[in-house]
Amino acid sequence: MNPVIGPETIIDERIYHTIKETKNGAGAPPIKTSAGWLHIAHGVRNCAAGLRYVLYAFLCDPKEPWLRIASPGGYFLAPWGTEEFVGDVGNVAFANGLVTRDSAEIYLYYSTADTRLHVAKTDVDTLVDYVLNTPVDPLFSNACAAQCHALYQRNLRAKD
Predict the structure, then answer these.
(1) Which residues pair with 136 in a beta bridge?
(2) pTM beyond 0.85, yes or no
(3) Which one, of 64, 63, 59, 61, lies nearest residue 38 by Cα?
């Protein structure tokens, strides 16, 4: 225990065979929402092209912010296209910060390939909906494929 900080609690651990199997870490400061503390973090996984950094989100309890209450599987932002993929360190997306506005808009600042800084716009309700309604990672390839198929079928039915 650190005598200056006090007890430390891991709120989001690395998990084998996921987007955060090699490393994970905090990104932008958490946002307090009516559903809880919304976190944007980065996850790192080894792949054929080297390490791949992506952004993911999770939610912690509003009254006990060290308790994770929702953790969707997968990522919500990854390098896309040549402009975001190629640079000093390819295949990297990393959150640098965010700004929230009274209208509940969120401007997420992120870097790609350690070469460019971008800003993406969304809103609190959309991110919270994503975190609460995206299923957790089932951790096995066949279960992931079945989950993707079920989501695809559900989306087809919703489209009709």
Answers:
(1) none
(2) yes
(3) 59
Is residue 159 over pLDDT 80? no
Per-residue HEC secondary structure of 30-63 comes to: CEECCCCEEEEEEEEEEECCEEEEEEEEEEECCC
DSSP structure class, residue 87: S
Structural fold of domain 23-159: Tachylectin-2; Chain A (2.115.10)
Contacts (Cβ under 8 Å, ≥6 apart) of 1:
7, 8
**Side-chain half-sphere of 141: how many Cα atoms within 13 Å?**
0
Question: Residue 153 is encoded by which pair of tokens?
Answer: 């079928």
Kindly state the DSSP code that residue 139 receives in the 8-state scheme.
S
Q: Is the model more confident about 146 or about 86?
A: 146
How do the domains of the chain map onto residue ranges?
23-159
Phi, psi of 11 (to 5 degrees): -105, -15
C-alpha–C-alpha distance, residues 134 and 2, integer Å: 36
pLDDT digits (tens, 9 = 90+) for 17-65: 899 999 999 989 999 999 999 999 999 999 887 889 999 999 999 999 9
Contact 67, 60 (CB under 8 A): yes
Locate 46 and state its tokens.
């080894």
